[in-house]
Amino acid sequence: MTPAEKYADSYAQTIRLLFTEILQSKQSADRVVAGYFRLNKKHGGRDRRIIRETLFALFRWYGWLIRIPAANEEQRWFRQLATCGLLEQHPWHATLTAWQLRAGLLPHEGSAWQQLTEAAELLQLWFSGSDFPVQALVPEWFWAQLPGLSDNQLMQLLQSLSRRPPLWLRVQRLPTASAIQSLQAAGFSVEASTFFDDALSLGHQSINLNEQSLYKDGQLEVQDLASQVIGHICAPQAGEHWWDACCGAGGKSLQLASQMQNRGHIVASDIRQSALQELQKRASRAQFDIISPALWPSDKLPVAAAMFDGVLVDAPCSCTGTWRRNPDMRWLDEVTAVTDKPQLQLDILQRASAAVKPGGILVYATCSLALAENRAVVDRFLNDNADFQLQLLQHPFTGEKTEYLTVWPFEADSDGMFVVRMCRQQRQ
User: Fold this and answer.
1) SUPFAM superfamilies this protein is in (predicted)?
2) Phi-psi region of 193 (alpha: psi -120 to 50; beta: other; left: phi over 0)
3) Helix crossing, 273-286 with 251-259: angle to 10°?
4) Positions marked catalytic
């Protein structure tokens, strides 16, 4: 074997080990890969990129890869690796050529494709007689969970799920132009969002944020553009009191603090102490001193009732809106990832609503695209709580006026998200 073929075989074995572990353990690919690289520091930057990008591509195209014909499992594996390189136009040509030869395929660099139907045609040239329907790129149960979409929208959704998402950043405590200038000076290509003046896209560039002074000084945060929509729907004002009831690691708490110019008060709650500790680190780095953590470990509210100008309930969900960023979750989860959540979401929303003062705002959001976790939960809540009324929203990417706002990944090159804004009526 040539050195290139030996490297290609080594990569194939490592990727197979990780791929199998993820499918069997049902742990997220991010966690498994991070753990592997922590234990195996021998890999350089190029090795890590080949392993990581090929692994995620396997999950992105898994619905097609399992349809590839092969004489045996070894040939099937190398055909799957080669197919990922063909579809994603990976630049490690020597490795791809070696995989193609091991797969019993003629070396082929493929060609750029724009539409999924073109990608399917590329595979049909390699594997004549096999069919690669675009609907197979997500599990069959997913389709029944979506609200009514046109055929064109469904195709656009699949198209988005088949492309790597960009890295979105949010600027805080600094003029956006200054952040762009600093990142460009560090050698990065930066694109400002046309929708939000504090959002930046770095595309698919690799960046170690821990080496960037803007990040270390708390002037940059990683936050997908769809996630940033939630803060803009909340629209908190300086001096107000807000409760982020399901804060996680605190990305939206930090966004609210930035919008409030670090004036007012934000209580951030989560069921996990570790999440609140991570938020405290990020808030300290950002020099935001208006955020107070409050653990929410039981049914009892961790805050006073009817005391907040605004409450944000970013509810735990199936995360189907992040499938583009986490393609492994399409195949690790089952339909119960959606169907098990609505009752919990409604319960959290009902409890958290008690903290909204008369005239205050209640925002419900998920990173799910499933109707059962979104509009269905909101409608059940409103049916039992006549003192809350939906407010009309303007979709930031399409301009559409709606009470139920869904951000689809194809609308602005982002994740998917759902959000509504409700107002608690003043007592008579």
Assistant:
1) S-adenosyl-L-methionine-dependent methyltransferases
2) beta
3) 40
4) 367
Per-residue confidence (pLDDT) for residue 2, from 0 to 100: 87
User: What count of Cα atoms within 13 Å lies in the side-chain half-sphere of residue 276?
Assistant: 18
% the chain with pLDDT above 70: 99
Only one residue has tokens 């982002």, namely 414
Instruction: Identify the structural domains of the chain with CATH numbers, from first to last.
Output: 3-137 (1.10.940), 168-222 (3.30.70.1170), 225-424 (3.40.50.150)
Show the tokens assigned to 411: 């609308």
CA nearest neighbour of 396 among 254, 234, 241, 245? 234
User: Annotation-wise, does 333 bind a ligand?
Assistant: no
CA distance 28 to 38: 16
Residues 250-260 as b/e (b if ≥16 CB within 10 A, e otherwise) read bbbbbbbbbbb
What is the signed CA dihedral for 156, 162, 167, 168, rounded to 10 degrees? Answer: 20
* pLDDT score for 207: 84
The predicted pLDDT at position 111 comes to 73
CA quadruple 22, 28, 30, 35: dihedral, nearest 10:
-60
39 vs 44: CA distance, rounded Å: 13
What residues of the chain score a pLDDT lower than 70?
A: 110, 428
Token pair for residue 425? 């009526």
